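Predict structure. Input: Protein kinase domain-containing protein, 309 residues.
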Amino acid sequence: MDTSSYSTQYLVLDFIGEGCFGKVAKCLNLKTDKTTAIKIFKDIKEHKEEVKMLEQLRALDPEKNNLLEYIDSFIIQDVPYVTFEMLDTSLWDFVLQRRAPLTPKEIRPIARQLLVAFEALKSIGLIHTDLKPDNVMFVNHKDEPFKVKLIDFGLAMPASEVKTGMIMQPCGYRAPEVNLGLPICEAIDMWGLGCTLAFLFFGQGIFSGKSTYNSVKTLCCLMGQPEDHILNEWCFDTVGTLEEAVKEDTMAFSNLLKWFLSLKERVSDLLVQTNLHNICIYLFFSWHSPGAPVSSHNPEMSASLKYKT
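Output follows.
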């Protein structure tokens, strides 16, 4: 690779992020005069793993599927880089700066776009495994309000390579089947999505990010302790009273969260249904309808969401 061309291609304008992987810089592409984001890695192995996942994402349209656009990767003087499109701000930073949670009306388009993104990932057999408010970003909130994209595929994995007992996902967004050592599938991303939507609605995470014990304890308080025979079947029902935490006019949103934060329906729906987006379309319509009660389900859709043994 001729690295000399890369050494003059980008002008670093600012450093906009930092994590255990390295740093993210806001840069100007001197050839195209466009602003881009460049991820600077500390570890070349992590760079190779992420690029491997990003190359698989090239099979998907980043605009139609609300995914971060991957541009290029290169290595200069043994330092690995990846370039992406420049986005706006993360959901986490947005809520902190706003100092107020989002309304169901504001959350709805975000949820819909993320469902499209995860359906696309499922179509190519990938699990994101790292969904949290930091990893969803607005594209340009001023010009395109509430248009978002899913980012950070450094921990993404092919579903075929996931094994029972693997520890993945941030603690506060970790699905119970991961904590309990139960079989894992794409459904864990739906749990992460439910936790992320709850963060937007309440303005804080509903599960502790400090320890697995605290997360499981909160789960049992919110949704009821799983019965032994259900755990033996590696699934459990939502039996809690999450709707008590929200006002009467947002009961439908509570119902949506309960679906995301259940293990039984969430896992079985993904295993049985061929189109997750169609499953959720009704949920969003009922959520969007003013005053729609939690129990107002389409009979055909309700039947399709029942657990299949």
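The first strand starts at residue 10 and ends at 19.
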